[in-house]
């Protein structure tokens, strides 16, 4: 009999969709950093090697649980509309909503490409505030891995290559080639000599970004919001008709919230509150708890239909009721009440159908989770929204294009307003058994984020899957009148769903609908899972 190799039990773990970013977080854990230090270092590296997904010019949400400090909080680094933004600023150029329901089409694409598309970046401020409260290593020691990658260079990976060549004209948005080539710095970094985007295996060396990271390492987030980088951003905006000023940057503050919590099957689920996406997952799980999902059978037609109807109800309520609570109250007490969950479940049980005419958001996001040897748990999701193509001279970084998320028509729930944040599906999550954290997970993938995380939570808690099994299991999505299924759900189940009256669309790829990454901690044993559709993995630290 072949001997079984016994590996040391891991004492810490980090998981992310980019291998270089995982290595960066692992290096910081080995250097004595805690989970928050490692998560920030990993995220900085993600901004280097996934430049159209995330970066210091973007936005995000971070949840941290630290049993040693007795700390459990969410930092909201979602971006805000600049002070000069006005509800009517794009109204005369409005043409339509994007064909997939994600964003709005203007005649000149000014809300998607260029300086007017940029909102005030929030992610670095959230990192700084969280680190000031709970970091262990000095701030400057979180940056060397990302700086080294930027200076030495990295090779374009499969998922990055796919994003570089993404063409969204069918939905009314521009191809990514236009964004990569929008500035001279972008063309030099990310395009070949013939002007086309770089391809799989091509090298990217970004010394300007390394210099910017070095400046922030030594001078703190103030370098970005009030120092030389702020001056570069504001100067570039002024020169090209952008809205962001030095005052916008200097006045930005991240929000610190208590997590939004529900119970599901006796476990406590901690999620980020509005305008982040935790309420969608919370409402979905509270409805599903009324059903014996294991009796239905995993991914049977009856299981998919039940899950899908709960998705549609939660999605409709999110569209109509969940916005920036600073501008419009969100009826959380009603949405998460036992009475409403029971009413929704009853509707589903009676065979009533819910329809919303909308389709998924594109996956322009990334995520990570980390657990350290002292039990600190960190889950982070961050993004550029839609990349704007804007790279302020000398910074080496792309800025977000999140103005595309605001409705250009005045007088609507999602209309533009100074200081306003838009709803984001991002929902870094932590699961507790009593007071003890037993899992952390998140996902990139726009409107698919909540759908994927909820399915992974059910896979973990109802079906007893490992994190890798939960992340890899075939998923489905109901965000519009069409039920989307992954290519690994058997066709006989599709036929049954169609006979039940559903319009079903089979996704051409095997691993679809967001990209769950996470870690479980059952009985103190760490096990990671990385969605196979991306390029990353889970790294275990045993020393």
Can you walk me through this structure?
The protein is built from 19 helices and 20 strands. It is of the alpha+beta class. It has a domain at 24-58 and 89-252 and 385-405. Helix 1 packs antiparallel against helix 2 and helix 12 (278-288) packs across helix 17. The model is unreliable at 358-362 (pLDDT under 50).
Throw out a few tags for this protein:
543 residues; alpha+beta; 7-stranded antiparallel beta sheet; 6-stranded antiparallel beta sheet
Mean pLDDT: 93
Report strand order across the widest sheet. 8-3-2-12-11-1-20
Task: Report how far apart the termini are.
Answer: 30 Å
Proportion in helices: 25-40%
Cα-atom Rg, whole angstroms? 22 Å
Number of helices: 19
Record field, number of beta strands:
20
Indicate the overall shape.
Answer: globular
Biggest sheet, open or closed, and with what strands and sense? 7 strands, antiparallel
User: What proportion of the residues form beta strands (DSSP E)?
Assistant: 15-25%
Low-confidence stretches: 358-362
> Helix/strand/pairing class, anyone?
alpha+beta
